[in-house]
Amino acid sequence: MTVDPWRITGQQQIDSYVERHVQRAVLLVNELAVERAYGRQVVPPATGPDRQAAVQEALATAGLPASESLTPADADRLAAVATQLRPAFRTGSQPVIEELNRLLVRHAAVPNLHGRPDGPPVLAFHRAEAGLVDAWTADAGTALAMVIGVGQGERLRSCEAANCERAFFDTTRNASRRFCGLSCQNRAKASTYRQRRAAGTAAGEGGPPPGR
């Protein structure tokens, strides 16, 4: 007898759940740990209140729920977390994997069902009593580990445009995305065009004179 592979009915919801936590990791890295973006140098916010404001604004822009409990002190700790998460968007090398494992241990990542009085229990990757920084880090770190662990680590990318190192999660079907957004894609295309045009001009100047 042949047994068909088991399929999870709610697979789309599970994928969306993991993606939401990956996007939070992307947001933290881009707001608190990136020094080059969209072709120019940027200075990440350096104080708790500025970091807090940057994260809240980015959450709103991304359509993610704001956090009423995020404090400046939390934001300072999240800046350190963002620096630790950033290498995951560059390479899946063993040192990156080991650091991610250490991060999960430090922030007590553990699958946990959180009860709700108004609905079914909710899956999280942190204990119910965890503070905001541990909760966010455990959830984001576990989501990144899940992406890497199922062989999709190449989808955790950094922008390939010049002078941009913003992180992103590539959700295209064939994992072909190279840039953090349209502006960097257009900059890269324009740069490639200028380089080809300059190369063509130089080749023409070095060639034989036109015949009579």
TrEMBL record:
<dbReference type="InterPro" id="IPR021005">
    <property type="entry name" value="Znf_CGNR"/>
</dbReference>
<protein>
    <submittedName>
        <fullName>CGNR zinc finger domain-containing protein</fullName>
    </submittedName>
</protein>
<dbReference type="InterPro" id="IPR023286">
    <property type="entry name" value="ABATE_dom_sf"/>
</dbReference>
<dbReference type="InterPro" id="IPR010852">
    <property type="entry name" value="ABATE"/>
</dbReference>
<feature type="region of interest" description="Disordered">
    <location>
        <begin position="193"/>
        <end position="212"/>
    </location>
</feature>
<dbReference type="Pfam" id="PF11706">
    <property type="entry name" value="zf-CGNR"/>
</dbReference>
<feature type="domain" description="Zinc finger CGNR">
    <location>
        <begin position="155"/>
        <end position="197"/>
    </location>
</feature>
